[in-house]
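User: Please look over both lines:
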Amino acid sequence: MAGVNPQRNLVVIVVIVAISLFAGLQLVKTVSPGHVGVATLFGNVQPEGYTQGLHFPINPLYRWTTFDARQKTHVETANVPSQDQLQTRLDVSVQYRIDGRMAPDILEQTGDPASAVRVHLIPKLRSLLREQGKSIKRAEDFFLEATQETLQLALTDGLKEYLAPKGIIVSAVLIRDITLPPFIVQAIEQKKEREQAVERERAELERVRTELQQEVARAEAGRAAAEEEAARKRILADAQAYEITQINNAIAKNPAYIQLQSLEALKAISKDPASKIYFMDGSSSNPLPLLHLGDSLN
């Protein structure tokens, strides 16, 4: 027909296809991994959530709220009083996740995930921290390993029990840091310094004791050596005395031995020209020379 405009028909076709595609997209909902989609229609929350993946067909009039159901960590810092009325600052972290099955209930009763954490998790955590702090006698007891284990367990159990019905699943509560009042920190540091000084003194005493033990050992070794030397000399002296005694006994039993030794002595003396030997007579006042007698006659 002469009245038909081909260009106009092409525009109409493009518009129809675009509208169809747009309408088709409105019937499809894609939920990201680890998330849950909650739909509302005219202010009414749909009772079932939409898990990760592609969903079709979907009412194009739905309004969507997405819940991140992956594991998360909330960090909290609070001043916790102990029985001694001192405030200790605790840094704790709560590992939790949103229960995807309860996402519609959370949206209807509380709001989005951030609202659930703000309304339920944080106030209960602070309340439990104050409550558990009252069971601790002294502020410095927070540093005890047993105290920390008990505190973490009590916080974890308390939050689990309270938050599970509200759609928040708690896996653990961990103590990240403990800050005591400044004067207690100073007292602990001074105590540590004193302990270190005592350890140094103990090490010095141990060193001196070791040196004394070494000196005693050396003295004992010297004394033992001296005793051995004295014993050796006593044995030698005893041997010599025994030898002399035996000689004396032998001489006493053999007078000829003395005469023989005398003759040997006279023989040795006679070889010396300067020597003179006199014969002693007890009844005479003048001894007579036995050697070189001829010299005096000449």
In short: The radius of gyration is 59 Å. The mean pLDDT is 82.
